[in-house]
Write a structure and sequence with these properties.
- The protein starts with a helix and ends in a 7-residue tail after the last helix.
- The protein has helices spanning 2-5, 8-20, 33-63, 69-96, 108-111, 122-147, 152-180.
- Helices cover 72% and strands 0% of the residues.
- The chain is built from seven helices and no strands.
- With 187 residues, the protein is mainly α.
- The structure holds fe (ii) ion (FE2) (2 copies).
């Protein structure tokens, strides 16, 4: 499958640049409507990221095959469920802020920081998920800092999501070592 041949680091760079572009757009104020609009815009991107994670993990949980795939499938399914919780929490937050959560499949991958990568085999799937989790962790860490004390509600939600994504990355890293016998994707 084409995804297997893609250079990982290039993809991460591109995705991270895309994920960060909204952060560089302007100064952060505190209580004006412009800030809420900005927050909603950022959260739409987080929502898209979570939707793509739900789709990718769901696909992997069904399609993973091979020796010892059962436990990996169960792990993928568990992550899909947790990504779904994130997706709903972010959508609720957008709604609370007066926005309309964007679930439109059109343009989904453009709005998302993470990719939808099928993976050619079990190890590829694990790698794709690890990359996606690293992007999410990197992006959400920045967002937690970005919101600072200006929007405690949004910040708290992102901190909770971030903690779970860190666990997901850890889970994928452990699975990769278990299936390849050595750590991969070290910086
Ligand atoms: Fe998530
Ligand atoms: Fe995750």
């Amino acid at each position: 499958m084409a995804d297997a041949q893609k250079p990982f680091l290039t993809d991460i760079k591109t995705l991270r640049a895309r994920a960060r572009q909204h952060l560089e757009d302007g100064a952060i104020g505190s209580n004006n409507i412009g800030d809420v609009k900005k927050t909603i815009e950022i959260l739409q991107s987080v929502l898209a990221t979570e939707i793509v994670c739900v789709l990718r993990y769901s696909m992997h949980s069904v399609a993973a095959s091979g020796i010892s795939s059962q436990s990996v499938k169960a792990e993928f399914a568990e992550h899909a469920k947790e990504e779904h919780e994130h997706m709903m929490a972010v959508a609720e937050r957008i709604n609370q802020l007066g926005g309309t959560p964007n679930f439109n499949p059109e343009g989904l991958l453009t709005r998302s920081a993470s990719q939808y990568s099928e993976g050619a085999n079990l190890v590829d799937m694990i790698k794709e998920n690890l990359v996606a989790e690293r992007i999410a962790v990197d992006h959400y860490r920045e967002l937690v800092r970005y919101f600072g004390n200006d929007d405690p509600g949004t910040k708290k939600m992102l901190e909770w999501i971030l903690t779970v994504e860190e666990e997901h990355a850890d889970d994928m890293h452990d699975l990769l070592i278990a299936h390849e016998g050595r750590p991969m994707l070290k910086d």
